[in-house]
Design goal:
This protein is α/β, with parallel strands linked by helices. The chain has two domains: 3-132, Rossmann fold (3-Layer(aba) Sandwich); 143-280, Rossmann fold (3-Layer(aba) Sandwich), CATH 3.40.50. Helix content is 36%, strand content 16%. It contains ten helices and eleven strands. It has helices spanning 13-22, 33-38, 40-44, 72-83, 98-106, 121-132, 151-164, 183-193, 222-235, 272-280, and strands at residues 3-7, 26-30, 48-51, 89-93, 110-114, 143-146, 196-201, 205-206, 218-219, 242-246, 262-263. The strands form three sheets. It has a five-stranded parallel β-sheet, sandwiched between helices. Strands 6-7-10-11 form a four-stranded parallel β-sheet, sandwiched between helices. Helix 5 (98-106) links the parallel strand 4 and strand 5. The protein is elongated. It starts with a strand and ends with a helix.
Length: 284
């Protein structure tokens, strides 16, 4: 387990912190340059620092040289380097100042990644792994659970994934921090982190045509259908990375008729062997 310090005043960085904790790192976010200067010794003893450059200038500290009020992160970097000259630092920032970026890259074990460029979470994670000297991806797949209102079967599946398959804790969207994002932005963010998706199609809603009522006809929640379609488009139907778990009585979407579902009417454990077989053939 590595100790990672994130120095950034952006609340959205809590999502990155949460993602790294999920990968068994010990992570703390410090939200200001002023607080960082008070904790320099602790910060310099970490294994990795992820540092924003554009932050409010430390209180009561005079500016100097090119490191002005728009580059408080550089002041923090200088002070960290006085404590520890080799600790890896990833400057993850929206600064576009070429002079500052060049200065960052001249430091030993310093890397610059722009927040403006289209870096996926995996790109950032790979850079973090390289900085820590960790080989990327001999880890277990990161799973994502799409679910409706059936809490019992959701918890059964979560338990199966963690305790039987021995995968890390699955992503369940409502359990993750919002970070000031819309729901679709949050879905997109956590989808990038996921390698395998379990879709729980459970009979949550009544399915009726027009003014008719039919209590025997049921369908999955609309969010489940939408998120299933999103992942089918993102991963590809034939990737094998989307495992559909079906609990009757349920009307299934006609658009995807012919796709194989695993019947979980007897419970997740009863369907466990079929689930394990599908997971074993997933190619990430």
């Amino acid at each position: 387990m590595s100790q990672i310090m994130i120095i950034d005043d952006d609340l959205a960085m809590d999502i990155l912190a949460d993602s790294l904790r999920f990968r068994c790192h010990n992570v703390e976010r410090i939200a200001s340059a002023t607080e960082s200067l008070k904790r320099l010794e602790e910060i310099a003893s970490a294994d990795l620092i992820i540092l924003d450059i554009i932050m409010a200038w430390p209180e009561g500290r005079p500016t100097k040289g090119i490191f002005s009020t728009s580059t408080a992160g550089m002041e923090i970097m200088l002070e960290i380097r006085k404590q520890n000259n080799t600790i890896p630092i990833i400057a993850y920032s929206a600064t576009q100042d070429a002079t500052v970026i060049e200065a960052i890259r001249e430091y030993i074990n310093c890397y610059f990644i722009s927040k403006w460029e289209d870096h996926s979470f995996r790109d950032l994670l790979n850079q973090i792994n390289r900085a820590l000297g960790v080989k990327s991806n001999p880890t277990a797949p990161q799973s994502f659970i799409i679910h409706g209102h059936d809490e019992k079967v959701k918890l059964e599946l979560k338990n199966f994934i963690q305790n039987i398959l021995q995968f890390p804790e699955p992503i369940i969207l409502h359990e993750r921090p919002n970070g000031g994002r819309t729901i679709i932005e949050k879905l997109e963010h956590y989808a990038e982190m996921s390698t395998i998706v379990f879709v729980l199609l459970t009979p949550d809603d009544i399915n009726a045509i027009g003014g008719e009522t039919n209590d025997q006809k049921r369908q999955a929640r609309q969010n489940v259908i939408f998120e299933m379609g999103y992942f089918l488009g993102a991963f590809g139907r034939d990737s094998g990375r989307i495992i559909l778990l079906y609990k009757p009585p349920l009307d299934l979407p006609s658009d995807i008729s012919g796709i194989v579902y695993i019947d979980i009417s007897g419970g997740i454990e009863a369907a466990g062997e079929k689930i394990r077989k599908e997971v074993a053939h997933v190619t990430i």
